[in-house]
Amino acid sequence: MKKAIWNGTIIAESDETINIEGNHYFPPSALNQTFLEENMTHTVCPWKGTASYFDVVVAGERNKDAAWFYPETSELAKNIKGYVAFWKGVKIE
Fold first, then answer.
1. At a CB cut-off of 8 Å and minimum separation 6, what does 77 contact?
2. Could you read off the pLDDT of 34-77 as tens digits, one per residue?
3. How far apart are CA 1 and CA 57, in angstroms?
4. Which domain holds residue 28?
5. pLDDT tens for residues 1-35?
6. What CATH number is attached to the domain comprising 74?
7. Cα-flanking dihedrals φ and ψ of residue 33, to 5°?
8. Which helix (H) or strand (E) holds 64?
9. Is the pTM of this model over 0.90?
10. Taking the mean position of all CA atoms in its chain, how far away is CA 11?
11. How many domains does the chain have?
């Protein structure tokens, strides 16, 4: 079971993450949406597609762009469509 934890709070929890390039992508059903706020940030991965970002917000503290996902993916990355990965101090245990 993998957990994404920030500021002492579990943001996501699943035993069905997909590990790509060292990042655990959590299925949408594993997310606690209470702590995620979608923002306007986007980046492009040459082989996965255009990523969208969430701020992680816990106990009034904001971790900008700490989670990302691909709402649409290339054919190569279709298995992570809609899955969410974390960084910027979010611990995966």
1. 20, 45, 47, 48, 49, 70
2. 999 999 999 999 999 999 999 999 999 999 999 999 999 999 99
3. 23
4. 2-92
5. 999 999 999 999 999 999 999 999 999 999 999 99
6. 2.170.150.40
7. -60, -20
8. strand 61-69
9. yes
10. 9
11. 1
